[in-house]
Give the backbone structure.
Amino acid sequence: MAIEWRKSYEIGVEKIDSQHKELFIKINNLLEACSTHKGKEEVLSTIDFLGDYVITHFSDEEKLQKDNEYPDYKDHKSAHERFVKDYEKLKEKLDEEGISLNFVMTVNKVVVDWLVKHIASADRAFGTFLKSKV
Ligand SMILES: [Fe+2]
Ligand SMILES: [Fe+2]
């Protein structure tokens, strides 16, 4: 099931918003690879594409937070780190189980639930902070 970008997710920083939009595209590619049973290799490569992009995005976002002396920087960074750990486990799971129902459910939990909620709440809070600074 594809996820849809909403304007309300925008945090008002162009670079971050366009990276978030790109994340949505990559998440949907992963979901599609899972649902069309394209095989482990294809799913693994969408996991890697999304994973690499997430790492770049997190470091850009954290840099912006640090540069702006964001008070919640530490917590935000820890949340990113927790995600990366959980995300890494997806590969092991795929390796062990293949594209099982349980694997797909975990993808939904880790990627869709976490990342979309994070963008809609934690990242937005940062956007609100930035706006309050100007
Ligand atoms: Fe973000
Ligand atoms: Fe974030």
Summary: The chain is about 80% helix and 0% strand. The mean pLDDT is 94. The radius of gyration is 15 Å. Residues 61, 76, 80, 118, 122-123 surround fe (ii) ion (ligand 2) (CB under 6 Å).
